[in-house]
Write a structure and sequence with these properties.
This protein is an alpha+beta fold and 426 residues long. Helices cover 57% and strands 15% of the residues. It has helices spanning 2-8, 160-195, 198-217, 220-225, 231-255, 263-284, 288-297, 299-314, 318-326, 328-343, 349-425; strands at residues 15-17, 24-26, 32-35, 51-52, 65-75, 81-87, 94-101, 105-111, 128-133, 137-147, 155-158. The strands form two sheets. Strands 1, 3, 4, 5, 7, 8 and 10 form a seven-stranded mixed beta sheet that branches. Helix 2 runs parallel beside helix 11 and helix 6 runs antiparallel to helix 8. The termini are far apart.
């Protein structure tokens, strides 16, 4: 039988004993891998041709990357062991797990961004699979992974209790962070309609785009909102990020009061046009390299806006300091993301995404407070000007009354002198 042949052939020496492991195990040292042929989930012949994962040099290169991974498990205990295998990447296109055991045969499970939610073994944003190994038994795990953008392959084996405890924490963080962004978006849009302030409308639009992007990138949209149409997540990721950049540039241009004649204004305008073009391109052809082009294309304008904000700080204008200070949490999250990718700090994707989400929530609340303070100061200035006008009007009325009294006094004096002159003549 096929599963017996797979189990017996090319056994990898790094076998993981489940009965002696902790609640959380990093599986990186235990995997072997090989490139999948023709990008299809067909098992390699008799499980042969696998290499140690630490020798991998092609996991993060090339679009439409497809790989097979192999792992040997052993349960030396006297009771069956249940584990959850998590792939730390919600943007994995497709993943299929095949478990081969000597006493229970072969089982298959599917997950990934392009798999309908109803076909997933566990309905969660990231790919998660269940593994059950019988007592005093061995199992060989084959994992097929396909991604259009390459991958940084990170997998963890959890006990069910520990996994769902971790998942509950990140779900609460996601819910609170996203809730803050949505509430701030609705608040700013309502204020924009009531106060007729376009700045609030631009900020509300930006926050709505950011909230939608988090829903897509973190996998919750494809899991719960349009679970049976997974193609939507793949198609919407690039355009939504482009819309976020357009909304951010529109808001920043007016928040910093960039003049139409300034070179910063031309840079912002050109970048917004570039983002509009990239939205159309990514809608037609979602691709990781084009997505990177979109991100890199917005780096110069972000630097230009930072320079302009710094110049406003130097000129003692509050808008520059408010802009830089409010965006500080987002700058910190982006630096953490870049350092984690380039230096391999080891933070999980869920932790990085939660950090970015919390940073965006702080930015949303910060800009809402800043704009509310602007409205308050503007109202105070209007009230001060109104009081000054009232005082001026009172002063004018007082002057007019004094002039009228003086005129009446002059008229009385003139009448008296005329009467006396007449009396003297007669």
């Amino acid at each position: 039988m096929l599963w017996l042949s797979l189990l017996a052939a090319n056994a990898w020496p790094a076998t993981l004993d489940l009965s002696a492991q902790d609640a959380r195990v990093d599986l990186t040292p235990y995997w072997s891998y090989q490139v999948a042929s023709d990008r299809q989930a067909l098992l390699p012949a008799f499980g042969s041709g696998f290499r140690p994962l630490h020798e991998a040099t092609d996991l993060s290169h090339g679009a439409d990357s497809s790989f097979w991974f192999k792992l040997d498990l052993h349960n030396s205990g006297t009771v069956a062991t249940n584990r959850l295998l998590e792939i730390d990447d919600p943007l994995i296109g497709a993943a299929e797990l095949i478990v081969v055991q000597d006493r229970s045969g072969l089982s298959r499970q599917r997950s990934g961004l392009r798999v309908p939610a109803s076909e997933k073994s566990i309905r969660l944003p990231q790919p998660v699979f269940t593994i059950r190994v019988l007592p005093n038994s061995r199992a060989t795990v084959y994992l097929f992974v396909q991604s259009r953008n390459g991958m940084a392959f990170a997998t963890t084996l959890w006990t069910p209790e520990e996994f769902f405890h971790k998942q509950e924490i990140y779900t609460w963080i996601f819910g609170i962070g996203l809730g803050v962004i949505v509430v701030m978006a609705v608040y700013n849009l309502l204020v924009s309609f009531m106060a007729k302030e376009l700045m609030f409308r631009r900020l509300g639009t930006l926050l709505a785009c950011v909230a939608t992007t988090h829903l897509i990138v973190q996998g919750w949209g494809g899991t719960y909102l349009w679970g049976e149409w997974p193609i939507l997540s793949r198609v919407l990721i690039g355009p939504m990020v482009g819309l976020c950049f357009i909304a951010l540039l529109s808001f920043a241009r007016h928040f910093l009061a960039i003049e139409y004649t300034a070179w910063h204004h031309r840079v912002v305008g050109l970048t917004m046009a570039f983002n509009a073009v990239m939205i159309g391109v990514l809608s037609a052809e979602p691709d990781g390299y084009l997505f990177n082009v979109l991100i890199l294309g917005n780096v110069p304008v972000c630097i230009a806006l930072s320079i302009h904000a710094a110049s406003l700080v130097k000129a003692r204008q509050p808008a520059g300091g408010q802009f830089l200070l409010t965006l500080t949490p987002l700058f910190a999250a982006v630096v953490l993301l870049a350092a984690n990718r380039s230096l391999g700090l080891g933070y999980s994707t869920a932790f990085i995404q939660s950090s970015v989400l919390v940073a965006n929530a702080l930015v949303a609340a910060g800009f809402a407070v800043v704009l509310a303070d602007r409205i308050r100061r503007s109202a105070m200035a209007h009230e001060s000007a109104h009081q000054e006008l009232l005082r001026a009007a009172a002063h004018v009325r007082e002057s007019e009354s004094k002039v009228a009294a003086a005129n009446r006094e002059n008229q009385a004096k003139s009448a008296f002198l005329a009467t006396m002159s007449h009396e003297i003549r007669t």
